[in-house]
Design a protein that fits this description.
By secondary structure, this protein is mainly α. The chain has 23 helices and no strands. Helix 5 (80-112) packs across helix 8 (154-177) and helix 10 packs antiparallel against helix 12 (249-278).
C-alpha cells in the first residue's frame, strides 16, 4: 500500500517571503551634501572653541560693560539743526544709491533671465557681473572712489549703487523668470516687437516685485551708509566715526540711536509706499510694526476694509453704451495713492538735487590708483593668510550662534506658529529693532566692553543675524502649506506635534537656504568689521588704503572674492541637493 510521504522542502521554500527594499537608496550627491554640511558645522563649532567664545569670556567683561554704560550716560545728541542736516544728507545718499542700482539692474536682469535672453553668453555674462558686484565689498568700492573723486557724497552713492546690483539684479532676474508667459505670448501674437513685449507683457507683472526689492534694499543701504562713514563718506556714519575716535561715546551712541530710529521709520514708509503702489493686497494680514500701525489707524478712524474699486463694482451694473467714456471717480483711495506717489517722487528729486551739488567737486581727489599688480605691501604673506582664516572663523562661528538665537525668534514671529497673536507681533517688532542696529555699532560696543579681537566681531554678527535670519525664518514658516497643518490638527495633534510634523519639514529646505545666505553675508561683514578692531582681514584692508598700498587692497579683494565665490558655489550645490529655494 502506498503511503504518502511529505515532500522534502528546501530552506529557501520554508523561509518567509523576502522583503524588498521600499526606501530609495541615498544618492551619492545627497551623501556628499550631508558630509559637506557636517564638515561646515564642525568647522563652525571648532571656531567657537578656538576663538574662546564662551560664558567665561562674557563674565570677564561684565566690569568693562558696566563702566561703558556709565560713560555713555547721559547721551549727547547734536543740535536739532545739525541732526536734521545729517539725516537729510544720509537719506539723500541712500536714496540716490538705491535708484542708481535699480537703473543699472533692470537691463542686467532682463539680460540675465533665461526667458528674455536666449543668447547663453549674454545671459552668463550678465549673471557673472551681478555675482561680481555682490562679491566685492562696498567698502572696497568706497575706498577706490574716494581715492579717485575725493571725500563727499558721490563716492558713497557709487559704492552702494554698484554693490547693490548684486542683490537687486539677482532678485530682479529671478522675478522675470517666474512670470506668466501668457500675456507676453498674446502680445507677441499681435505682431508686437520684442521691446513692446517686454514693456507690456513682462514689466507690469514684475513691477510689484521690483518695488518690494528696491524698498528692502533701501533699508539695507541705510545701515551700510554707517559703515562707509568710517572711510570718509559723508553722513551720520562719518560723525559716528569722529565721535568714536575722540572717545566721545555719549555722542556716538546717541547718533547710533538716531540710525536705529531711521531704520524703523524707513520700515513704516516703505510699507506705506508698497501699499500705495501695489494696492491693499500688498499688506493683507500684515504683521509686525506695519500691521500694528495699520490696525491702530483703522481703530482710530473707525474704517473698515477698503471698498472694491469702481472697476470691479461696475460689473454688477448694466452695461453702458460703448461710445460713452467711462470715468473712474477720484475717491479717497486714488487720491491717497496719487499723493503718496507724488510725495515719493519729490523726495527722490530732492535727493538727486542734493547729491548733484557734489558733482561740481568731482576730481578733487586727484589721486591715482595702482591697483595692479596685487602685492602684500610689505606685510608677510602668512600674516594676511592667517587674518583671512580668522575672518572665516568669525563668519562661521557667528552663523552658528546667530542660528541658535534667530531660529526660536523667527519661529515665534510667524503668525501660524505663535501661540498668541500679541506674542508674534512682539517678536516681529523685536526683529525690526535688531535689524535697525548696524553690526558696526555692535562691534564697536563689544570692542569697548570685551577688547580688540575676533570675539567682538563674532558677537556683533551673531546678534545682527537675528534681524536678517530671524525675518527670513518667520517668512518661510508663514509660507508653508496650511492644509497639512489643518489635517494634523483634525486628528487631535498638539501644537508641538503640528509644528514638528507639518510646519518644520515644509520650511526646512528654505531655512537651510537662508542659513547659507546668512553665512555668505557674514563672510563679507566679518571683513568689514575688522576696520574697528573686531579681528580679521579688515584691519589690513583699512591700513592698506590709508598708506595708499592699493596693490594690497587688490590682493585682499581677490582673496575675499575667491572665498565668497567658493561659498556661493557650495551653497548652490547644497540648495539644489536639498531641494531648497534661495
Amino acid at each position: 500500500m502506498d503511503t504518502l510521504t511529505p515532500e522534502k522542502t528546501t530552506p529557501d521554500q520554508t523561509a518567509s517571503p523576502r522583503h524588498h527594499r521600499t526606501l530609495a537608496r541615498p544618492r551619492v550627491s545627497t551623501i556628499g551634501a550631508a558630509l559637506v554640511g557636517l564638515a561646515m558645522l564642525g568647522f563652525a563649532v571648532w571656531s567657537l572653541i578656538d576663538l574662546r567664545i564662551n560664558v567665561a569670556t562674557l563674565l570677564d567683561s561684565v566690569d568693562n560693560a558696566t563702566a561703558f554704560l556709565q560713560r555713555i550716560v547721559p547721551l549727547d545728541f547734536p543740535p536739532l539743526g545739525e541732526t536734521l542736516f545729517l539725516i537729510g544728507q544720509t537719506l539723500a545718499i541712500v536714496i540716490a544709491a538705491t535708484l542708481l542700482s535699480m537703473i543699472l539692474s533692470i537691463p542686467l536682469a532682463f539680460w540675465a533671465a533665461g526667458n528674455t535672453t536666449h543668447n547663453r553668453f549674454t545671459r552668463m555674462g550678465s549673471r557673472a557681473l551681478i555675482v561680481a558686484m555682490r562679491a566685492i565689498p562696498d567698502l572696497v568700492f568706497a575706498i577706490i572712489f574716494i581715492r579717485l573723486i575725493g571725500l563727499g557724497v558721490i563716492p558713497g552713492v557709487l559704492a552702494m549703487g554698484l554693490h547693490s546690483i548684486g542683490m537687486i539684479g539677482k532678485l530682479y532676474a529671478d522675478a522675470i523668470e517666474q512670470i506668466d508667459e501668457g500675456p507676453r505670448t498674446a502680445i507677441r501674437a499681435t505682431g508686437a516687437r520684442r521691446l513692446q513685449q517686454l514693456v507690456s507683457g513682462v514689466l507690469p507683472q514684475v513691477m510689484p516685485s521690483f518695488v518690494a526689492t528696491a524698498m528692502h534694499r533701501l533699508d539695507i543701504n541705510l545701515r551700510i551708509s554707517v559703515l562707509l562713514g568710517f572711510v570718509g563718506v559723508a553722513g551720520i556714519g562719518k560723525e559716528i566715526k569722529n565721535a568714536i575716535e575722540t572717545l566721545n561715546f555719549p555722542r556716538g551712541i546717541a547718533l547710533a540711536l538716531i540710525v536705529l530710529a531711521l531704520c524703523i521709520v524707513m520700515e513704516l514708509i516703505s510699507g506705506a509706499v508698497r501699499r500705495a503702489i501695489l494696492g491693499p493686497d500688498a499688506t493683507r494680514q500684515r504683521g509686525g510694526i506695519l500691521g500694528l500701525a495699520d490696525r491702530a489707524r483703522r481703530r482710530a478712524t473707525g474704517a473698515k476694509a477698503e471698498p472694491q474699486p469702481a472697476a470691479a463694482a461696475a460689473d454688477t451694473t448694466p452695461a453702458e453704451p460703448a461710445a460713452r467714456r467711462v470715468k473712474v471717480p477720484m475717491g479717497a483711495s486714488r487720491l491717497g495713492k496719487f499723493a503718496s506717489a507724488l510725495f515719493a517722487t519729490l523726495i527722490v528729486l530732492a535727493s538727486l538735487g542734493f547729491v548733484g551739488q557734489d558733482l561740481f567737486d568731482l576730481g578733487s581727489g586727484g589721486g591715482s590708483l595702482n591697483l595692479w599688480p596685487p602685492n602684500t605691501g610689505g606685510v608677510p604673506t602668512e600674516v594676511l593668510v592667517d587674518a583671512m582664516f580668522i575672518t572665516l572663523q568669525v563668519a562661521f562661528a557667528a552663523t552658528v550662534i546667530g542660528a541658535v538665537l534667530a531660529l526660536p525668534v523667527g519661529v515665534l514671529a510667524a503668525r501660524n506658529v505663535a501661540p498668541r497673536s500679541w506674542l508674534g507681533k512682539m517678536f516681529r517688532i523685536f526683529i525690526v529693532c535688531v535689524r535697525g542696529v548696524p553690526e558696526l555699532i555692535l562691534a564697536i560696543i563689544f570692542v569697548v566692553m570685551i577688547g580688540l579681537g575676533a570675539v567682538a566681531g563674532t558677537l556683533a554678527l551673531a546678534i545682527g543675524a537675528i534681524g536678517l535670519f530671524g525675518k527670513l525664518v518667520a517668512d518661510s514658516v508663514e509660507e508653508v502649506d496650511p492644509g497639512v497643518e489643518q489635517a494634523l490638527r483634525a486628528t487631535g495633534a498638539s501644537r508641538l506635534q503640528v509644528f514638528f510634523s507639518a510646519t518644520l519639514p515644509q520650511a526646512l529646505p528654505a531655512i537651510i537656504g537662508h542659513l547659507l545666505y546668512q553665512l555668505d553675508v557674514n563672510i563679507r561683514s566679518a571683513t568689514l568689521l575688522g576696520i574697528v578692531g573686531a579681528g580679521g582681514i579688515g584691519y589690513y584692508l583699512l591700513q592698506a588704503s590709508r598708506v595708499r598700498e592699493f596693490g594690497t587692497v587688490t590682493l585682499i579683494t581677490l582673496l575675499l572674492f575667491a572665498i565668497v565665490m567658493l561659498v556661493e558655489l557650495i551653497a548652490i550645490w547644497l540648495r539644489r541637493t536639498a531641494g531648497a529655494k534661495s
